[in-house]
DNA sequence: GTCAATGTAGCACGACCGTTCGTGCTGCCA
DNA sequence: TGGCAGCACGAACGGTCGTGCTACATTGAC
């Protein structure tokens, strides 16, 4: 992931890495609003209160900044969506949990422009290069995770035997994308409630208590 | 749709309207690659072999160009997706037809960057203004159309009575978005075959003959 | 405590952005 | 057929883009 050319012994200082981390957090946020390509060095530096060249010292080029931003977005997604799902019991519950974690992730508004990867996938899909490949890698890994959950649920006979893990993963990924698109477009949390119900109805589990015990407002 | 400020009696010439049409077609194509915001006057003019100012005579501002581009994309979508679906018999067949028409639309590669509205919705969702509103209008109308088809199929008892038109429209819209995202990202027509199967399995109709009689290559 | 490495700033560059201007050319209607 | 509005052009505006360069401040290791 964070490979470095071994010929250049770059030994970053402690505060430098802290600044780099702050830059990347802000970069992920801005990228969900302006896009990964529309993310500009000047805007990013202004939002952080540092100079363009000060920022530029951390990343040799805009493409390196984009790659590091994708990785940072992956870390956030891992912490906010994947890990909560992995904490759920394997099988059908995990399948529901990963969708709910995604909807919670949106509702929490960690990122101002919705899901980073949904936007980045459509934006970079038409721009071949290492950035697109990295985005595609994360997206493919996530769909693979859902398929893995679905296969486990099938093995535990918590789903009809006629179900197909690939089909199911495709559908659930679609529900997730539809939720993100409609949420971003209409800024209405009711979309997320609808999505939660759709997931449960599709998987044949009992509807959740949407108003009990969640402090997501 | 094509409203004009009534204070200025603009009486366009025939060749002017033809040029304007050529500009908009190219604008829609470029926008699916560079995004609606990344679409630049200079690039568009260069692609058309005309000057920036010559192009600018047709649209007073970039926003007007964007609005007209969204409308043109809507016309293309209407002709390529909606009208073929409307030609199918009402009910379940229409529900399948609208999805198939969308997948065909992608496979035909009318636009180089996949579905215009899928990209525009995610891109403009974070940018309030008239352009976002117009995109949201088209997107909402399309989901409404799917729901209408679903309701008709339910009325004709071609679907289980437990199905809900809103839920179904949400799911099918999701399948469509997943198909577009994966197709754009991986440039693999196999994704579209998978999507066609997913739709049929979900709706409980017989699998299509994917290789018989379609000249889509 | 010294010193080299690292972090940040300021400045400037060429290119491109959206936009405006002045100026011809030309299809259309009176 | 004359006149005029629509069309297209080249040039230029102020800004911002990504990207370099140099200079100074800060830091960590010896």
Task: Name the chain pair with the biggest interface and residue counts per chain.
Answer: A-B, 44 and 44 residues
Provide the domain count of chain A.
1
Mean pLDDT of chain A: 90
Could you name the ranges of chain A where pLDDT drops below 50 across 5 or more consecutive residues?
Answer: 1-9, 212-217
- Our Rg estimate of chain A from Cα atoms comes to 19 Å
The CATH topology of chain A is what? Answer: Tetracycline Repressor, domain 2
State the major sheet of chain A.
none
Count of distinct strands of chain A: 0
Range of strand content of chain A: under 5%
Summing up helix and strand content along with how strands pair, one would put the structural category of chain A as mainly alpha
Helical proportion of chain A, percent range = 55-70%
What is the string of SSEs of chain A from the N terminus onward?
Answer: HHHHHHHHH
Look at the structure and give the CATH class of chain A.
Mainly Alpha
Number of helices of chain A: 9
Which architecture of chain A does the CATH hierarchy give at level 2?
A: Orthogonal Bundle
Task: Write out key terms for the chains shown.
homodimer; Tetracycline Repressor, domain 2; 217 residues; disordered N terminus; DNA-binding; mainly alpha
Architecture overview:
By secondary structure, chain A is mainly alpha-helical. The longest helix of chain A has 26 residues, at 130-155. Chain A has a single domain (14-203), classed as Tetracycline Repressor, domain 2 (Orthogonal Bundle). Chain A has helices at 14-34, 41-48, 52-56, 62-86, 92-107, 116-124, 130-155, 165-186, 190-203. Chain A has nine helices and no strands. Chain A is elongated, with a radius of gyration of 19 Å. The first copy, chain A, binds a DNA duplex (30 and 30 nucleotides) through residues 10-16, 19, 40-43, 50-58, 61-62.
